[in-house]
Design goal:
homodimer; 239 residues; 3 strands; 10% strand; globular
């Protein structure tokens, strides 16, 4: 029995795009581990489509940022990076359930690959590439505008969370302390739990597959907490 | 007297594209050093357009590579890098004389900025961005296909020249020796001359603004020399 959802009609309804060639969609959902497993059938994996989709996403987000802001080149680059980075892309893809439809090899399935940000965000780029090939730039752009180019303020906050948090607490003469609480799981699939605390202001925990990812999430949680308490978390010198 | 050619009708004929809004073209040709110099007039430099044009170039070249090859993702990335890298982009831009039309500040002009690869390739990306905004994706794509996506075999050879040369001479049980011949010019604008030699096979020289760039050019010269003598320079294991 396959572990992935095979109902591609349902998936196409979810994303609001009907493929002319359903094989393009299947190609986008084929992780290399699955293609390797059944290699006698010569199924190709989604890496070529990912290469293409990455460029479609880059242009669409650059275009959107260029037209909607008067930011400098440096600020535009930073905002774009926050949109196309692995965790935020994976988050967007989960919003339409992409992870359930990815075809994975048994090994990847058993070690939790279906929930891994890297696999989900790569498949999301491949999906964008497949819509671009199947339906052209306009359809790919529409998909990206609907599912990826939203909630930009929070994505930016997440991406820059450690820097912003540092600025906020330093303005009060304080400092953030990050501490590793635990480290578990096998070498290729570790989970780190990290805490971030600052005097009486906050003490939060978050987990991630790297120490850095866990710290970033903890900083983000701290910022959300401060925001809830109406503490100003806008970086200094920015509007 | 301006040092740049101000005949933009001539330039538009050269590139085969007529702007609807000539200010877009002027914006693309404005280097930051020029914008800074006359900042009272609030002229914006070409960095925002460069940000956008870079993404247009990336998608157009990715699309071209995807459709014309069955390469793996890794090979496609390497070929794309060879197309969009600074020296090859600057070379393409020189083919239609872009450097003559760039508006530069006096300081940059005096220190040879008009012939600098980085300034020319940045302006080329800005030009692509300006055509994209002024005339849409199709016009930008046509420009890129005409002026950038050509001579790909040689660009690849140039980009990988040190690796390929190493493989060719190692196959004969030999080794390449690089030697720095001279280093001249002020700190921010050095010129390095480097030689590459290998037994009786070749002994060539080349110059560049970094030691690495000079070595790459020398390796490329050596490969061209070997090719002229009908020595096989195809990397091993590749067709």
């Amino acid at each position: 029995m396959p572990q992935h959802n095979t109902n591609l009609d349902e998936f196409q309804n979810r994303i609001g795009y009907q493929f002319n060639d359903i094989n393009m969609l299947k190609n986008a959902l084929t992780h290399s581990s699955y293609a390797n497993e059944i290699k006698l059938k010569k199924v190709s994996n989604n890496e070529r489509l990912e290469f293409l989709g990455d460029a479609v996403l880059e242009l669409t987000s650059s275009d959107y940022i260029y037209r909607n802001n008067q930011m400098s080149e440096g600020e535009m680059s930073r905002l774009r990076a926050s949109i196309v980075c692995e965790p935020t892309l994976a988050m967007c893809a989960r919003s339409f359930g992409l992870q359930k439809y990815i075809m994975l090899g048994k090994g990847e399935e058993l070690t939790g690959g279906r929930e891994r940000d890297s696999i989900i965000s790569d498949a999301c780029e491949a999906l964008i590439g497949s819509i671009y090939i199947d339906g052209g730039f306009a359809n790919a752009k529409e998909f990206i505008e609907k599912f990826i180019l939203n909630d930009l303020e929070n994505k930016k906050l997440f991406y820059d969370s450690k820097t912003i948090l540092q600025e906020v607490v330093q303005a009060r003469g304080l400092d953030v302390e990050y501490e590793q609480i635990s480290e578990a799981g096998p070498e290729h699939d570790k989970t780190f739990v990290v805490s971030a605390k600052c005097s009486d202001l906050f003490h939060v925990q978050a987990s991630g597959h790297t120490k850095k990812a866990a710290q970033q999430k903890a900083a983000y949680e701290a910022l959300l907490l401060l925001k809830k308490r109406n503490i100003d978390i806008k970086p200094k010198g920015k509007k």
